[in-house]
Amino acid sequence: MKPQEQKAEFIRLRAEGKSYARISKELNIAKDTCSKWEKELKEKITDHKGEQLKELYESYYMVREGRIKRLGDTLNDINDALSEKDLTELTPERLLDFKLKYMEALKEEYIEIDNVIPLNDNFNAKDILSTLGDILNRFRAGSITPEQATRESLIIGNVLKAYDVVEIKGRVDALDQVIRGRK
């Protein structure tokens, strides 16, 4: 494997959270090399982790979209059955019970899109705080479920952690340059 291919594979494996021991064994490189590449490729590893998170997030919404469609189709089937049945043959309680359950399940999948505050590419800590406040407000208003609020908060929490890492790295780099300038 060429050195560039090894580095690309190192980035992928570190973004997946693999240990130096496992990576050094898999790529046939020294652990010292792993440590050196970690420092050199830290930003690319962070970017790769972000891309993975984005893919998972998009996948989650695709799965949600599928669930909403299935629930809606089933609800339509129940409505059709209700309109076709002679209610003297079938207990209306039974069909109405199914209808109410599916309507509730469909309601739980609802996400209010219009009021979501998007994060732009150049966000700051204030934007993250504002987004967390938005989640809290939507939860209090009942427009999102506790589960949805938890999921969104976890994602924003991960964004906050990544933001902190980038901010701290910037400050460390600035301090490093000041120290080097004094030598």
Model description:
This protein has helices at 3-15, 20-27, 31-84, 92-108, 125-140, 146-182. It has 183 residues and is mainly α. It has a domain at 118-183. It starts with a helix and ends with a helix. The protein contains six helices and no strands.
Inertia-based shape: elongated
Helix and strand sequence = HHHHHH
Radius of gyration: 25 Å
* Computed structural class: mainly alpha
What proportion strand? under 5%
Fraction of helical residues: over 70%
Mean pLDDT: 82
Distance separating the two termini:
40 Å
What's the total helix number?
A: 6
Q: Strand tally, please?
A: 0
Which spans have pLDDT < 50 for at least 5 consecutive residues?
none
Main beta-sheet annotation: none
Concise overview:
The chain has a domain at 118-183. Helices cover 79% and strands 0% of the residues. The chain has six helices and no strands.
Strands, helices and their partners?
Elements: H1 3-15, H2 20-27, H3 31-84, H4 92-108, H5 125-140, H6 146-182
Provide keyphrases for this structure:
single chain, 183 residues, mainly alpha, 6 helices
